[in-house]
From TrEMBL:
InterPro entries: CYTH-like_dom_sf, CYTH_domain. Gene3D superfamilies: Hypothetical Protein Pfu-838710-001 (2.40.320.10). It comes from the Bacteria. Residues 4-183 form the CYTH domain. It comes from Faecalicoccus pleomorphus. This is CYTH domain-containing protein. Pfam families: CYTH. SUPFAM superfamilies: CYTH-like phosphatases (SSF55154).
């Protein structure tokens, strides 16, 4: 079985740079997604450099487990479910993913949620995502370059960033970390 790998580059940008990217790449369609993140009281998921979430997009609920492999790569296990209440999930595959990574299903509680307005553009080598995320106490603007396959993504991402006079240097933690950072 192929490993469930997600490789992406992310950078926080200014609102005016986001507006320029949205206009330049003709990103006129977006989806609103709400992310609910879970962890145990003693933060077992965080200790494993992971994240457990349910993402709500339209009327769909998507369970995701991410475990960091390196600075830009995660193991990502994802499956559509029929509920936004994590404890109502009975799917054996999902329960196995959690067990494999030693995450206690019944100890998981919601820890934070936020809403993102996501614009996407399908490129030849990657998907470009422009995210405007509303947290409880602030808004941020993140540009994401999500690999479709292995290549020199930093070089291609830098071509996208060049018109706004930026170069890729990781400048942000995950959205979940940012949600806690400014709260």
């Amino acid at each position: 079985m192929k490993e469930p790998i997600e490789r992406e580059l992310k950078i926080l940008i200014k609102e005016e740079d986001m507006n320029f990217i949205i206009k330049s790449y003709d990103l006129n369609k977006y989806k609103i997604q709400t992310n609910i993140y879970y962890d145990t009281l003693d933060r077992k998921v965080k200790q494993k450099n992971g994240a457990v979430r349910i993402r709500i997009v339209d009327d769909r609920y998507i369970f995701t487990l991410k475990i960091r492999k390196d600075a830009i790569t995660h193991f990502e296990y994802e499956k559509e479910v029929n509920t936004q209440d994590l404890l109502n999930i009975k799917d054996e595959e999902i329960l196995t993913w959690l067990k494999t990574h030693d995450i206690p299903f019944h100890g998981l509680i919601p820890i934070v949620s936020f809403t993102t307005k996501r614009y996407e553009k399908d490129l030849e080598r990657a998907t470009l995502c422009a995210d405007i995320t509303q947290y409880d106490h602030h808004v941020d603007y993140e540009l994401e370059y999500e690999y479709k396959y292995e290549h020199n993504g930093i070089s291609y991402f830098n071509q996208i960033l060049k018109p706004i006079h930026l170069q890729y240097i990781k400048n942000c933690p995950s959205k979940i970390a940012r949600a806690f950072d400014k709260s």
